[in-house]
Amino acid sequence: MADQLSRVFAALADPTRRDMVARLAEADHTVNDLAAPYDVSLQAVSKHLKVLEDAGLVTRTREAQRRPVHLEAEVFDLMTKWIERYRRQAEERYSRLDAVLARMQDDDGDTAATTAQQQEGTAS
Amino acid sequence: MADQLSRVFAALADPTRRDMVARLAEADHTVNDLAAPYDVSLQAVSKHLKVLEDAGLVTRTREAQRRPVHLEAEVFDLMTKWIERYRRQAEERYSRLDAVLARMQDDDGDTAATTAQQQEGTAS
DNA sequence: ACGTTGTTCAACCAAATGGTTGACAACACT
DNA sequence: AGTGTTGTCAACCATTTGGTTGAACAACGT
What we know:
The structure is a homodimer.
Chain A: H1 4-12, H2 15-26, H3 31-35, H4 42-54, E1 58-60, E2 69-71, H5 75-107, H6 116-122
Antiparallel strand pairs in A: 1-2
Helix pairs in contact in A: 1-4
Chain A binds a DNA duplex through residues 14, 16, 30-32, 40-44, 46-48, 50-51, 62, 64-67.
């Protein structure tokens, strides 16, 4: 279908699914249990769960007739790794830029109007 | 349209958009610049940028004809906050469960077959 | 065997998504 | 003034998504 990271992000892009994850963080739940608060059919909830399962966010084991749903929190790491990597990169870049701007203030350069992105583009 | 958290997750659910964000973490880019590596029309890239902009992940300022795209890394916090909250909650639950199981081992309870989720459901 | 409970599968529908092409707006360069 | 560069807007198309209903399946209690 798509790479897992895409599936995880897509799965969490829906408020109902995020709410399910939130509740599953507290305790495992059956499908009926999960469906109770929402004003949609049981089948719709089952579909949402399939999306979460395909993303690797939950697993379902069998227990008599019930299908307890269990949150697999490790998948969160996939996202945080991705996010943190680029957040850090961006922040480092901004602080480098701050340094450049501070230097320009001191020097009173005549290239002060040049935009930040060009500075960055040519910076080492 | 939808809440920002949903928009941010949805925006990052697309590999092309994630790649754009990755490149924007390094340096600001113009639209043409951004579009170069991808095998899609410029208009498609423009649409992707609109999605990222609506999510608050990027801003576009005007500079002559060019429209430099700039990454707004603060929005990442929205996601990490959400993710970390439930990850922590889930992890705490698991360690509590570990404690319960350990206690059961000691006691050699006859309810050992009872599933974890039921233990959790009635715990605390 | 039979009904009940819990859950999924199948077919369908409306809206959103990601892509296309064509027109055009804004600016820069002669 | 005329041309090229950079980017967006509008209309269209195919696919995906989130929802519905109705039927089916699976595991129990009787």
